[in-house]
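User:
Care to share a sequence and structure tokens?

Assistant:
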Amino acid sequence: MANFNTNQLQNILPDPNNRISHAGDILSSNAGTGFGPGFASFQLTSEQPTLRNFTNSGRLLARSIVAHKWKVAIKYNKLTQVDFDRIYSFIINRRGALNPFFVSLPNYRVPRDSSFATYAASANLQIGSGLAAGSTQALISKSGFTVSGDGKPSPGDLFTISGTNSNHKKAYMVTRVETQADYTGTQPSASQVRIHFTPGLAKTIATNDDFIFHNPLIQVITSGDIQQYTLDSNNLYSFSLNLEEIQ
């Protein structure tokens, strides 16, 4: 039986990769049950509100008016009471928007490049020099890393950043990747990758901050204050979640 440890409370939505005990703490991979159910489907939405105006000549004037956010809509298959209680109790324990949590999306759990997925499972690429908030590209590398041997990030990969700013929880998506063999502008070295991403950095990052491509987590709250479910005549539960990213 797992021991209760307030430093190891599960703060990731329970799923087949993230277990939870009755005490609410994390279960190791070989400790009892505690699996959360998988998703029947999910929807990831990128929301970037912009203000758009046109001049008399038809020229577009546009600017961002609100910070970017990801929205996640999750649908579950019909749930038994055991599976449902594991999810529902986790959600209502967050007390609406008072206690944010994280969600791991299955198709973004590992990078698309299989070689880089293996590398990212045990090591993180790092930024060579600090970047200001708003930056949309970064040159990342690490001693011993090579694109030819370890692969590279791919457009569509999600990542987060870990480093000097512990409050930097924003999730980003890679949109372009430049290497020594395929680049525009300044050529990266064999051990460097230049990634372009969206949205722009929410916070300043410092030299040697880590770029997390293996199991990037999105920090979320539930959208709205009401969580409801349906119980059918077969004692199976219907339940879905609408989540929105927060910083």
